């Protein structure tokens, strides 16, 4: 009798100390945890720095957005930020249209993964890029990343 109580106590202590909580990526249980490794950036500051530095900060921001979205979505085979920048330069900007579309999908996947309400805006990102409002895409993507990091 006493041995059974001891075993039950030991099992409870073990479960409390060593077992991790089960994550629900569908978001139905309300288990919302912030995404690790994502920098919470001020969108206004990023836009101002992009303008003041004549686009140099915008290039850095593009690379960071790509890497952080890949990390948040868990897509380990996705194109890195540096490679996405290289492909954009080599294709004279055509790759950026593909990048915008894929970023919408990645952000939706990341939202599902962390239980945050992020919708798939792939088509919106593509249209904004075609019209020449790529910086608006950066702002929307950064807003979604900020939601994940909170």
What labels describe this entry?
150 residues, mainly alpha, 7 helices, 0% strand
Give a structural overview.
The chain is mainly alpha-helical and 150 residues long. It is built from seven helices and no strands. α3 (56-73) packs across α4 and α5 packs antiparallel against α6 (122-131). 68% of the residues lie in helices and 0% in strands.
Mean pLDDT reading: 85
Structural class: mainly alpha
Helix percentage range: 55-70%
Q: Please provide the ordered H/E string of secondary-structure elements.
A: HHHHHHH
The 3D shape can be described as elongated
Low-confidence stretches: 19-30
Give the strand tally. Answer: 0
Structural Rg: 21 Å
β-strand percent reads under 5%
* Amino-to-carboxy terminus distance: 49 Å
Provide a brief overview of the structure.
With 150 residues, this protein is mainly α.
Fold blueprint:
Elements: H1 2-18, H2 43-52, H3 56-73, H4 81-90, H5 94-114, H6 122-131, H7 134-149
Helix pairs in contact: 2-3, 3-4, 3-5, 3-7, 4-5, 5-6, 5-7, 6-7
């Amino acid at each position: 009798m006493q041995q059974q109580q001891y075993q039950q106590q030991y099992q409870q202590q073990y479960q409390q100390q060593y077992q991790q909580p089960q994550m629900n990526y569908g978001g139905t249980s309300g288990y919302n945890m912030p995404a690790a490794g994502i920098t919470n950036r001020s969108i206004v500051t990023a836009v101002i720095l992009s303008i003041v530095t004549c686009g140099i900060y915008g290039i850095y921001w593009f690379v960071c957005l790509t890497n952080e979205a890949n990390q948040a979505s868990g897509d380990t085979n996705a194109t890195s930020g540096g490679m996405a920048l290289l492909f954009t330069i080599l294709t004279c900007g055509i790759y950026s249209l593909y990048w915008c579309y894929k970023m919408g999908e990645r952000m939706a996947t990341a939202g599902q993964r962390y239980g945050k309400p992020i919708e798939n805006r792939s088509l919106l990102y593509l249209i904004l890029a075609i019209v020449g409002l790529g910086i608006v895409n950066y702002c929307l993507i950064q807003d979604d990343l900020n939601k994940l990091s909170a």
